Amino acid sequence: PPSLRDAGKSFPGLLAGGLNExxxxxxxxxxxxxxxxxxxxxxxxxxxxxxxPGCVLRVDTPDQNIEAAIEAIxxxxxxx
Length: 80
Known about the structure:
Blueprint: H1 4-10, E1 15-19, H2 24-27, H3 29-44, E2 49-53, H4 63-79
Parallel strand pairs: 1-2
């Protein structure tokens, strides 16, 4: 908490977040990571958003999960 949607209503600046670094990025696999990215974009309409983990990117984050996040962002950019 708060969700990105709720934070966007209270905070006029850039929001950084959308990825759960402790669960999804480490254990959620590429599809779970992709879903979180797309959900973050939907919550903010893709405005004032920087996709980021809630804290640091853990060293045990699988490369394929990071790649899935990048690919999900790229797919949304290219579809607009």
